[in-house]
Task: structure prediction
Amino acid sequence: MKLQVLHRTHYVYAAPVRESFNEARLQPATAEGQTCHSFMLKVLPSTRLTHYLDFQFNCVHLFDLAEPHATLTIEATARVSTATTPPLPPDQATTPLADMERACGQLERCHDFLQPSRFVEPGPAAWRLGLDMAADRTDTWQVALAITDHIHRHFAYTPAATHVHTHMRDVLRLQRGVCQDFAHVMLGVCRSLKIPCRYVSGYLYNGPADQLRGAQATHAWVEVYLPGLGWRGLDPTNNVQPDERYVRVAVGRDYSDVAPIKGTYRGTSERKMTVDVLVTALDPVAVG
Result:
């Protein structure tokens, strides 16, 4: 599937600010059956851009604005080809849950994704929910599917009920939120059961016949690690395995590792931010 992504963030400050230092994780990855054919990042006021790969091989663009400015616009445009990874059948036999700690505990690729992180805490509430999901299941994949289904069915998709800094323990209490919140809850429950899992940020194309939540905005889902099968995606917001409609940008322990834009500046804290995301299909066959 050929997709084009436009992501525009615009800030208006109550008074001019200065010494603005920023990093952006907006460039789609070329990996896992996905190819980013082109990417352009524009910043106004104009400034010099540099980039590097972080610890998880996400592309990070850096820029700074020393002079006073009353507005800031960051616009990313990308063209991407995606492909569907054959989904795992619901009855696929994988590693027994009881063996996961032994199988993954010493793997370097899994260590960070078994630990607490800024927005994810495998605490008592997550542990109790995990035990409920594993009560009559022994296979890790079956448990992960059950967690995905539970969040989809029992947590209400409610924009504005939370914000980007909401912790998963508050989402567990409220049982409402958006894709970022549902991903954080799933991470906490999986980690409480010693299932390595990571946060994935990206975009979601919603075709004319689709009824997917989280489309035409930044989206978030989860990947769990299964020995012998690698990282496998699950989207608790839509209760599906990600397919060619999903564009992956970055992976991390939680949202704090992959925020599209973050930085610091000197000046007023009063500002207005607007974000526009548009994902369109470039392949007519894919739209039908």
Remarks:
- Residues 97-257 form a domain with the C8orf32 fold fold (CATH 3.10.620.30).
- The CA atoms of residues 259 and 275 lie 13 Å apart.
- The chain has eight helices and 13 strands.
